Amino acid sequence: MSTDLSNYRKSYEKHELLLKDAPANPLELFKRWFHEIDASFPEIEANAMTLSTISLDGFPKSRIVLLKEFNTDGFVFYSNYNSDKGQAILADPNVCLSFFWHSAERQVIIKGIAEKVDAATSDDYFSTRPRGSQLGAWASNQSEIIADRDVLNNKLKELELQYKDKDIPRPNHWGGFLIKPTEIEFWQGRPNRLHDRIEYKLNSDSSWTINRLAP
After folding, report:
1. Which of 23, 94, 172, 191 has its CA 20 to 30 A from that of 136?
2. φ/ψ (deg, to 5) at 175
């Protein structure tokens, strides 16, 4: 079975990204792009990002997660620490994040080092989650094999009774990861496949080296 996609083509012509427009700190450019996307394209999840890790079996694995905070330290998302991705990060904290905002013909690729956020930060975020999501963090042993969906539904019913009219505490196995970036590349689609690529690399003094890359 074969499907020919050789004629799938699109010309990228919406924006440009020049070195003269690149700030000294890449997080400033990320913030600018993120808010532009969020304001201009409400139909997409601007905070949806691909997280790539090296699994315990030695293979790379990518999946979509949701960015919940970005600041001067880096990028934060939350997960089950016992999940496949959680265990992969704890074994090898070198990870990659990528955002592809197709409506604006933009991509951001972030290499960085992951670490757990402190318990208080995870507690604060967990308390803001919808009650159903809080229960879901307890109900699902993420990435483990289960017999069928009834396993989840029955566990959820048990938890609903257990925590009826009670606050739901954060599970110890659930919390945040902070990705501290060491390299960030901004990609802007341009005509004729001559795309704009601006790369930032972190220096030992916390400054950034900025280069334009060939597409």
Report:
1. 94
2. 180, -165
Cα–Cα distances (Å) from 163 to 135, 141, 158, in that order, read 9, 18, 9
- Per residue in 124-172, pLDDT (tens digit) is 999 999 999 999 999 888 887 878 898 888 888 998 999 999 999 999 9
| Angle at 67 (CA atoms; ends 61, 68), nearest 5 degrees | 140
Alpha-carbon separation of residue 23 from 97, 102, 139, 161 (angstroms)? 21, 23, 44, 53
State how far the Cα of 144 lies from the Cα of 149, in Å rounded to an integer: 13
Specify whether 63 is catalytic: no
Cα angle 150, 142, 98 (rounded to 5 degrees) comes to 130
Tens digit of each residue's pLDDT (9 = 90 or more) over 5-42: 777 777 778 899 999 999 999 999 999 999 999 999 99
Looking at the chain, list the stretches that DSSP marks H as alpha helix, in order from N- to C-terminal side. 26-40, 84-91, 119-128, 131-139, 149-162
**Marked catalytic residue, from 106, 193, 197, 212:** 193
Predicted TM-score of the model (pTM): 0.92
φ/ψ region of 206 (left if φ > 0, alpha if ψ in -120 to 50, else beta) reads: left
Contacts for 161 with CB less than 8 Å, ≥ 6 apart: none
Both tokens of 26, joined, read 């890449």
